[in-house]
Amino acid sequence: MNKIVLAFTLVLAIKQLGYSQDQQFTQFYAVPCYINPAFAGASVQSRVSAQYRNQWSAIPGGFSSFNMAYDQYLPNISSGMGLFINYDRAGSGGLKSTGVHYQYAYEARIRRNWFFRPALQFGYVTRSIDFDKLTFYDQMIRDNADQSVEYGGIRPSNYFDFGTGLLTYSQKFWFGVAAFHNNNPDQSLYDGKKAPVMRKYGAHGGVRLRIKSNSLAKLDNYVVIAANFQSQQEFDQMDFGIYYELSPVVLGVWYRGLPIKSNGYGVMNHDAVAILFGFQAARYKFGYSYDVTVSKLGISNSAGSHELSLVYQWANKSNTRSKKIRIMPCAKF
Predict the structure, then answer these.
(1) What are 195-204's pLDDT values in tens digits?
(2) Domains identified in the chain and CATH numbers
């Protein structure tokens, strides 16, 4: 019976791909290029970052996402460049999506310690589904036939994707906006049917404040307040959180939801409360976060969500020369 329900749900999902949403991450500043291409090369150092998320681990079939990015600042042309790869797998049918994206950001110095970065992103995405992992109703009434009639017309989907972003920052403050899927690419898995990827908008920002005290005056002791808003068709989401940084440890708490807006069924938009732990050792940064589900789904049904991030940074001569005039205040995880 569970297979029938899952299969039916999957068919509905395939036929309504226009309502699908992009990946979401709690540690979105661990791989900042995901939320805005203008972050490409924004770090003082060259950077490789990776991120894995296991969404609602108690649900059969599971939902998992993976990001990996490389970005670097090029001072000779006042630009940042990045290569971003993302992978997503959803449900028992192995609905998979893999994207490779190139990012370019130009950096303009507005004032002594204030910068502005417009950016472009060009990507190629492929989506597929493994029907061999699903059993449909028509197969069961035909004594488990090898193939369902639903299989007809299914083929992988491949498309180009285009995004843009803007970012401005100073030594303590940053704010950015981004728009993805600007060309509304067709991601349908059915021949002869259209399912455009709806444009996604994002806005994010924050402030980084140093805490001064007699005992901690010589330590890196900061509080970071940050927010990330996303909107894709009728789906809206806000992440708001606060970090405490006492090098080499980072502790944080996040709230995800939009309580001023219901989901259309009279239920308030509360999703999760996340707890984050980060640690930095030399060139490495490691982060772990756990999302406690506070929506109607409940923690007992979902078992929450786990997320891991790993960042490796290194400096070269050009990075070192520009370090004194380029300080990105963005959160670390």
Answers:
(1) 899 999 999 9
(2) 2-322 (2.40.160.40)
